């Protein structure tokens, strides 16, 4: 049966650190619900009620636009090996851009990743675990380097041009403010 916690315990942190993928869910009152898979060793637990994750350049920027209007966020982890567990973190987040004073301190918690564009700083108000007995086993074979290689090839100026062309608005037309907040 599912259990709820008011903070991230050490056993939860250990589980989170062992996962290779997580999923982020956000929405505003007038947008589609967005669920994004994330990887690349981009998640950190900073305390019992605080996590951060590094967001890299992708084809969209829904999460940033949503959080700037409605800070609610859910992060989900699922065990694909070992004991079946699904873990969800519920809370509120804020977007940290390269121009923000917190960027340097938080970015230092990650290995540099080409294409980094935002950090999400989430206050967790509830953690819920549930069984994952219907989740299939998957074997981790390695990281895909395609996005990292693409971002390196683009360089800083190429990434800024890509953001201006592809990451300025969501599929619902909401502004992401990425260019003005990251240059």
Topology:
Blueprint lengths: L2 E3 L4 H9 L3 E5 L7 E5 L4 E5 L2 E7 L5 H8 L2 E7 L7 E11 L6 H5 L8 E15 L15 H21 L11 H4 L2
Provide a brief overview of the structure.
This protein is of the alpha+beta class and 183 residues long. It contains five helices and eight strands. Strand 2 and strand 3 (34-38) form a beta hairpin.
3D structure, described in words:
The chain is of the alpha+beta class and 183 residues long. Strands 1, 2, 3, 4, 5, 6, 7 and 8 form an 8-stranded antiparallel β-sheet that branches. Helices cover 26% and strands 32% of the residues. The mean pLDDT is 96.
**Tertiary shape:** globular
Weakly predicted, low-confidence segments: none
Order of helices and strands: EHEEEEHEEHEHH
Main pleated sheet: 8 strands, antiparallel
Helix count from the secondary structure assignment: 5
- Taking all Cα atoms into account, the compactness measure Rg is 16 Å
Number of strands: 8
The pLDDT mean sits at 96
> Alpha-carbon distance between the termini?
47 Å
Task: Classify the helix fraction into a percent range.
Answer: 25-40%
Strand content: 25-35%
What brief labels describe this structure?
single chain, about 180 residues, alpha+beta, eight-stranded antiparallel sheet, 5 helices, 8 strands, about 30% strand
């Amino acid at each position: 049966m599912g259990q709820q916690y008011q903070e991230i315990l050490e056993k939860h942190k250990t589980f989170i650190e062992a996962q290779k993928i997580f999923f982020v869910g956000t929405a505003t009152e007038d947008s589609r619900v967005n669920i994004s898979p994330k990887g690349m060793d981009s998640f950190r637990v900073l305390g019992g009620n605080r996590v951060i994750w590094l967001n890299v350049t992708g084809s969209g920027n829904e999460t940033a636009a949503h959080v700037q209007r409605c800070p609610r966020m859910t992060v989900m982890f699922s065990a694909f090996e070992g004991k079946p567990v699904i873990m969800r973190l519920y809370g509120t987040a804020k977007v940290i851009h390269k121009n923000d004073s917190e960027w340097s301190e938080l970015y230092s918690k990650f290995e540099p990743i080409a294409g980094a564009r935002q950090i999400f700083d989430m206050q967790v108000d509830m953690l819920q675990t549930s069984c994952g007995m219907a989740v299939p086993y998957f074997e981790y074979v390695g990281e895909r380097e395609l996005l990292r290689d693409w971002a390196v090839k683009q360089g800083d100026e190429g990434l800024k041009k890509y953001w201006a062309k592809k990451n300025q608005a969501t599929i619902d037309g909401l502004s992401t403010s990425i260019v003005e907040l990251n240059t």
